[in-house]
Design a protein that fits this description.
The complex is a heterodimer of chains A (284) and B (356).
Chain A lengths: L12 H22 L16 H8 L1 H35 L4 H10 L6 H12 L4 H8 L14 H26 L2 H9 L4 H12 L1 H17 L2 H6 L6 H12 L2 H25 L8
Chain B lengths: L6 E10 L2 E11 L4 E5 L6 H9 L6 E6 L2 E2 L10 E4 L11 H11 L4 H14 L15 H13 L5 E5 L7 H18 L2 E6 L2 H7 L2 E6 L2 E6 L1 H6 L4 H7 L3 E11 L2 E5 L4 E5 L9 E6 L5 E2 L8 E11 L3 E8 L4 E7 L9 E5 L6 E2 L4
Parallel strand pairs in B: 3-8, 3-9, 6-7, 7-8
Antiparallel strand pairs in B: 1-2, 1-4, 4-5, 9-10, 11-12, 11-14, 12-13, 14-20, 15-19, 16-17, 16-19, 17-18
Helix pairs in contact in B: 2-3, 2-4, 3-4
The chains are: A mainly alpha (284), B alpha+beta (356).
Pfam families (chain B): ABC_tran, TOBE_2
GO cellular component, one term (chain B): ATP-binding cassette (ABC) transporter complex
Organism (chain B): Caldiarchaeum subterraneum
């Protein structure tokens, strides 16, 4: 078939221009940088080398950061899922009609607030002089402020659960809603009680929603830097490593190589999730 | 001691808000019987099935299986199984896993599960599809899987909620015969719900006709078709000519009726009083082309319309008595629109529509 330009192709121009300007040009720039010859304090020169990639992928330090990042990302995903699933189940299966959807819209409102401000709010709750410590002190449960909730990995996970909750509830709600009611009846008819119905029918059929929640939470976590920096204490993730290399160390080629490596890992992870967790069932 | 019926409904009543879905339903189903609950949509037949399956609770009345009241037994503990209207097969499981579902939940040993699934798959001729995904099956094959999934559990009562609805006519006919074969070979008790009277005729031992939540007639389909007791039942099962008539004379075994312009002789029914107005019915196929001398159970009329239906032809004609009647003749009769025909029928084919 011969492709010819027609007047309708004009409609594609704004989108193409937008993507080109804000998506492809920056990425291509970063790809180009990643092959430059690196050095700290902004002393990097144009050129072509694989040195940055080799350093990033073979360094013991970055490997550890990678492992920690993946562990934190996975724990955050699990924690969010444990909180979001019962909420989504309640909204989708217990509430009738569109009530559940309206409540989800309410859940989106806090997201309108600035991201950093939300994280700072958590400092007031989790901090040494924060709400939780004051409460526990007042009740006499502890004698001096505990630090377990602040400047720790747990604090990072708590804040992520809060931030990511709507992103998990929404896809779970949609999948749970799309399961035909009579499948539950059929399961009951064939001898399943509520628990058995949940594990044999509801949970397997909500896998696409879990997969989407995974993508929404796990993937951004790989590049997250603000939460660990503000509430994480010693928690140092891939996002922090890249930010430090760009802003503090000033080694742009190395930081760019790290970014591109991360991008490729993310793409592979997303591809696997899409392929093996039945995400396509959501829109087929 | 006599064995109790496989399924018994006693005064089952169900209301949704102000709407009565079921009113005082009492019905007994023998073991090994294929009973069809026949009714138009909204008649309450699906509600009745849900009450038997345990998905709805009756407001009043009892549901018994083999003599035991099961009103408070949840669906997953009832010895019933339902084939759902849209089948409700599990899309994340393959054919084998779908059929094995109930057995796995009941923790049957692995060998027993395999043996039973194989048995059900062979019974329904789907043994070659056992590893397929549900989405790879045709409508008819899905029917078979849904049926097998229930049959492996050997339920005391199998409930079928219009499972053949979405199939095309030819496949439906095939499945009707297939269902009947399976039911006969298992000697199992089946309760089948449909709105299609032909389907009911093909398959059932007995039919229960439901309308607006009331059970109007229960019995074998031939009796109900030929001797319905109400106009609704008569019309629901096929076409008929209805007349309103006054009882003019009740003699032994016979009743003389006057529609105002036409005299009818009918078999008498107990309780008829001279002078009362009643409804009568004559099925179109009972009307014969014939000349009769005496002015009873006969008519003469001009043909208005012909509908060719293969083996027979439906003839609509306007009679000298001022009625438009429908008669069904074999297609070999040569009749044209505008012809004048003379017809007659015998007394036993004039059916008085009265339930008590």
């Amino acid at each position: 078939m011969k492709r010819r330009l027609s007047i309708y192709h004009i409609y594609a121009i704004p989108t193409t221009a937008y993507l080109l300007l804000f998506f492809y040009i920056p990425i291509i720039t970063i790809i180009v940088y990643s092959f430059w010859i690196g050095g700290p304090f902004y002393e990097f020169k144009p050129g072509f080398t694989l040195e940055n990639y080799v350093r990033f992928l073979t360094s013991r330090v970055t490997q550890n950061v990678m492992i920690v990042t993946n562990v934190v990302a996975f724990l955050s995903f699990l924690a969010t899922l444990l909180v979001a699933y019962p909420i989504a189940y309640f909204l989708a299966r217990v509430l009738k009609g569109d009530t559940g959807l309206r409540i989800i819209l309410l859940m989106l409102i806090p997201l309108e607030m600035n991201y950093l401000i939300r994280i700072f709010a958590w400092r007031n709750i989790l901090g040494e002089q924060g709400f939780i410590n004051n409460l526990l002190l007042t009740l006499g449960i502890i004698d001096e402020p505990v630090r377990i909730f602040f400047h720790s990995m747990y604090a990072v996970i708590i804040v992520i659960v809060h931030n990511a909750l709507p992103y998990a509830v929404f896809p779970l709600y949609i999948t749970l809603r799309s399961i035909p009611q009579n499948l539950y009846q059929a399961a009951m008819d064939l001898g399943s009680n509520r628990v058995s119905t949940f594990f044999r029918v509801t949970l397997p059929l909500s896998m696409p929603g879990i997969a989407v929640a995974f993508l929404f939470i796990y993937v951004p976590m790989l590049g997250e830097f603000a939460i660990p920096a503000l509430v994480g204490g010693k928690t140092f993730l891939l996002g922090n490593l890249i930010t430090r290399q760009y802003l503090d160390v000033g080694n742009w080629p190395y930081a760019s190589a790290a970014t591109i490596s991360l991008l490729i890992i993310t793409l592979i992870a997303s591809f696997l999730v899409f392929k093996y967790m039945g995400v396509r069932r959501l829109y087929e | 001691m006599t064995t109790p019926p496989a399924l018994e409904l006693l005064n089952v009543t169900k209301t949704y808000g102000n709407v009565a879905a079921l009113r005082d339903i009492t019905l007994a189903v023998r073991k090994g019987e294929f009973i069809t609950i026949l009714g138009p949509s909204g008649s309450g037949k699906s509600t009745l099935l849900k009450i038997i399956g345990g998905f709805e609770e009756p407001d009043k009345g009892e549901v018994r299986i083999n003599g035991q009241v099961i009103n408070n037994t949840p669906p997953f503990k009832r010895p019933t199984s339902m084939v759902f209207q849209d089948l409700a097969l599990f899309p994340h499981l393959n054919v084998f896993e779908n059929i094995a579902y109930g057995l796995k939940v009941r923790k049957f040993p692995r060998d027993e599960i395999r043996r039973r699934v194989k048995w059900a798959a062979e019974l329904l001729h789907i043994e070659k599809l056992i590893d397929r995904r549900i989405t790879q099956l045709s409508g008819g094959q899905q029917q078979r899987v849904a049926l097998a999934r229930s049959l492996v559990l050997e339920p005391e009562v199998l409930l079928l909620d219009e499972p053949l609805g979405p199939l095309d006519l030819k496949l439906r006919r095939e499945m009707q015969i297939e269902l009947r074969r399976v039911q006969r070979s298992l000697k199992a008790t089946w309760v089948y719900v449909t709105h299609d009277h032909e389907e009911a005729m093909t398959m059932s031992d007995r039919v229960a006709i439901l309308n607006e939540g009331r059970l109007l007639a229960v019995g074998d389909i031939k009796t109900i078709y030929e001797k319905p007791c109400s106009r609704f039942v008569a019309e629901f099962l096929g076409e008929a000519n209805f007349f309103e008539a006054r009882v003019t004379q009740v003699a032994e075994g016979k009743t003389l009726l006057d529609t105002g312009s036409m005299l009818l002789l009918a078999p008498s029914k107990p309780g008829l009083r001279e002078g009362e107005i009643i409804q009568v019915m004559i099925r179109p196929e009972k009307i014969k082309l014939a000349k009769r001398e005496e002015p009873i159970n006969r008519s003469k009329g001009k043909v208005l319309d012909l509908t060719y239906k293969g083996a027979f032809v439906d003839v609509k004609f306007e009679t000298e008595h001022g009625y438009v009647m429908l008669a069904r003749f074999t297609s070999t009769e040569s009749i044209n629109i505008g012809d004048t025909i003379e017809v007659a029928w015998s007394a036993e084919d004039v059916i008085i529509l009265r339930c008590r």
